[in-house]
What does this fold into?
Amino acid sequence: MDTQPSSSQHDLPTILSGPWTADARQRAFECEVSTHYVEYYRRAVTQRNWSPWHNLPIEEMQQLGSRLSSTSADLIEGFLGIEEYVGDYVQTGLNLFRQDRTRRNAQLQWGAEEARHSVAWELVLKHSHARTDAQLETYMKKAHAGVWDVRQHADMDNPLGVTIYSMIQERATHFHYQKMRLRIREEYGLSLTPTSQEQARGFEVGASEAFRLVALDEIAHHGLFLRIVQSAIKYFPAQTFEILVRVVRGFKMPALHLIPNVRTYIRAVRQADFYSPEIHEQEIYQPILRAIGLESHVALERAVAAASQLPVDLAPESLSLKRTGEWCIEGQGSN
It folds into this structure.
């Protein structure tokens, strides 16, 4: 029903329904990112607030350390090296997000959580008697001599590219650590699932617990970056998919070429059948495609090809993406 506004209503701004401007999209995107970060932070401090110095079963690592194979020790040492470049990763994000309070703070929180991972791997190696204090000190000095550079990866010179890369990388790291956790349990002589005793006390045995905790961090990080990417697709579909494709094509794990003893690490990866292009496709890439609403790489290519032709002033709610890669505009069917 149409009504005449009262005199007091004349002082209020007029709300018009019309095209979405670039500025409106950016503001709506930033609002969603803030919501994602607040929820991520809540879970971080209430559900994943652990310390490598205080919450790991060190005595069990010492008791069971002799059961770890040399291949497992070499893998963990490689993880330690890669995680030691956390300062470079954080600095890159801080430079990109310097004017964005929410993303800056998210980068700081993410970095604080990541910083405990290399400490966890150092403690696992030390207390499992897989490496001496002197060996660990020498290894980390060599690691610190290198510098990870954002330019080593495709499209990591812009905020959206960094977010997409992080989404993929965190999913890959979670997979690695979960696989390592199961490998350790097997070498310990345990079942792959936690025993009733572990369930009752609330944590797993020895180094298995370290990998459980770190893997929980990594999948939480993946979830944050995934939600940001999903929001970017909602408000900036053409730009997001264009960068997504380039990052996917050029993706490689960070700092791999920088870590000390890299040949030993790569040999261990091969001996353990730990990672391969086929594993990446099945365990990392395909789940990410499904999470953003696509069923295959062909669907991604179809979505990318059509995204650049979408009207730029549509309300985000009027646009949807089919799993097969076709875009639908409300009231127009497939486009």
User: Anything to note?
Assistant: The CA atoms of residues 195 and 204 lie 8 Å apart. Strands lie at 319-321, 327-329, 333-334. The radius of gyration is 23 Å. The chain has a mean pLDDT of 92.
